[in-house]
Structures are given as structure tokens and as C-alpha cells.
Amino acid sequence: VQLQASGGGLVQPGGSLRLACAASGFTSDDYTIGWFRQAPGKEREGVAYVINSHDITNYADSVKGRFTISKDNNKSAVYLQMNSLKPEDTAVYYCASTRSNRIVQTLNPSYYDYWGQGTLVTVSS
Asked: Is 46 exposed, middle or buried (0-12, 13-18, 19+ CB in 10 A)?
């Protein structure tokens, strides 16, 4: 499995960004893809996940109502639409997945098997 995140950048508070995760190498439709972030000096935390075969999503409380995770099966991509961004959203964002035929329903990073490289999101005026 290979994952590649993109779309980070500098945005003002209240602005929006859309991150993309290109995913390939799965051998079934049953897996979970999540977005995670790590701010300087902090532990990596889960932001949102989607269960590919069931379209089930979940979000961290800190981003509910502002972030939306979605997937495009035709493009083998998962997106994170981030609206109403705050300075505290500044972090390196990663996409990660479980292996094929393994579904998890958790934002705990330790349950994910594959990780893409991060993309930096900076929210600042």
C-alpha cells in the first residue's frame, strides 16, 4: 500500500484548504483510511477516518462541523476538506490506512498500518 498526501499550505484563520491522499495497492475494498496531524511538540492525533467499503466516517471533536472527509473511488483518493481553519489546526497532516481486509473504527494512530508522508498546514495571519 502506498499513500501520498498533498494540498498543505499557508492559510489565514477562517480560511479553507483541501488535502488529498492518493492511495494505491489495496487488494480489497475493506480498509480504513484516516487523517492525522502532529503539531510541534505534541503527539500525533487522529482527525478523521472513513471506512472505505461502508462509507462510515468519524471525526475528532476538535474538527467536527469544520472538516469533512470524503473519498473518490474512481481516483483512489481520500480528501480532507478543512473549513473555518484556526491557528491551532497548524500541524503536519498525514494520511494513513489499515491493511486490506482490516477495518478499524478508531482515531488511535497505533491501529493504522501504512503511512504517507506529511503535508504541512499553517494557519496564520
From this structure: buried
Decide: 52 and 32 in contact? Cβ < 8 Å.
Answer: yes
pLDDT tens for each residue of 8-65: 999 999 999 999 999 999 999 999 999 999 999 999 999 999 998 888 999 999 999 9
Name, in order, each residue with C-beta under 8 angstroms of 16's C-beta and a sequence gap of 6 or more. Answer: 81, 82, 83, 84, 85
